[in-house]
Amino acid sequence: MDPADLHLLPASQAALALRQGLLGSEQLVAACLARARGEEATGKELAFLDPEHALAQARAADARRLAGEHTGPLHGVPVAVEDVFDTADMPTENGSVLCAGRTPARDAAVVARLRASGAVILGKTSTAEFGADGLPQAAGPEAVPGGRSGASAAAVAAGLAPLALGHQSAGGTICGAALSGVVGFKPTHGLVSRHGMLTLSRTLDHVGLLSRTIDDLALLAAELAGHDERDPDTRPRARVPFAEVASEDPPIAPRLAFVPTAHGERVDAETREAFEELLGHLGDHAEALELLPSAAAAWGWHRTILEAETAASLDREWEGRERMSGALRARLERGRQLPALEYQRALAAIPRLRESFAELFEQRYDAILTFSTPGAAVEGAASPDDPVFAAPWTLCGMPAVTLPLLQAVDGAFIGVQLVGPCGGDARLLRTARWLSARASSG
Q1: Which end of the chain is more exposed for a tag (fewer CB within 10 A), N or C?
Q2: Is residue 261's pLDDT more than 90?
Q3: What is the DSSP letter of 401?
């Protein structure tokens, strides 16, 4: 590959070249840093970047490989991490002035797993205030498209890193990836540990994965998935062979349920038209399906849980509310006033809703096909950070992936979201690969 294009090298290919000695980590990291300094980056994707520290990690990775030491699957590969994950060697300020200068003593679980796999932590990407969906990025409301993980997605899209970590309690990872034209993946709730990640909602918080290819998602997911006793929602389970399953051809062509959800009328005309063309191309492999009437309440349940648990999680920070934005302060005020009975009813609804979706998959469909966002990003304008098409799956803890398969007339990407059953993460990535191939054949 032309050295000028090293920043575009997918993580899986970079990892192989690094293992074979065809590429040095310092060379790859330097290419990403050059991209960060170039015109392609807005300068607002990264909340923290120390080029010398990143290069020092890369040189150490190269030295270990040359010394014949064991190298992990991500050895020498740069990864950008959203600024809601603790990093012992970098600040973690959670997008808030109340956390300015905060320097954790330990890495978050996912950061520790990245380091154990040999990855280079390139820097920290910007986040919304306390990582809250629907609030502006810390770098400014016009900084990057998408929700709380928009900066991580934008960093991958700009070539600052082939992989990045985000965070989703509503639609941050899915929206950010869709609007930036990259691949975003929200695994099953409890598959990836959240220890050391900013807590907003134990019920809804997920680690998000961002890349430019499905292969890279599978590589990253395999390194991050696993039980962690410090996160009570993770469980001991057999190793998930992400790369092996995701790279296979499905035994039979998947069947997809196209679900516009109860809010399909919020989709703009251009996105709707693009989906109609995709559905026409899929033919008998996709079937329109309306959700059960009971599922229409999912959005209200999601909001109740998110606001109540966020208010509880940020109870100590409430003392500094005068230094918060008006939007966050209003959200916390609503959460603090919610009746306990309303919150408990919302929690009790999740198992029933999850079971109804499980029956859908067991009886007929391999995945749900739906919109990622109501529309594409608009250059020079605030992006449509609306998690309405991601919230139900976040509520149920179901895995979801967004693919940049469609484009608007002006070239902006339109994300296509696939949702699978809980625990079916690897098969969902396999279906996503099939859909990508099917769409490109048209």
Answers
A1: C
A2: no
A3: E
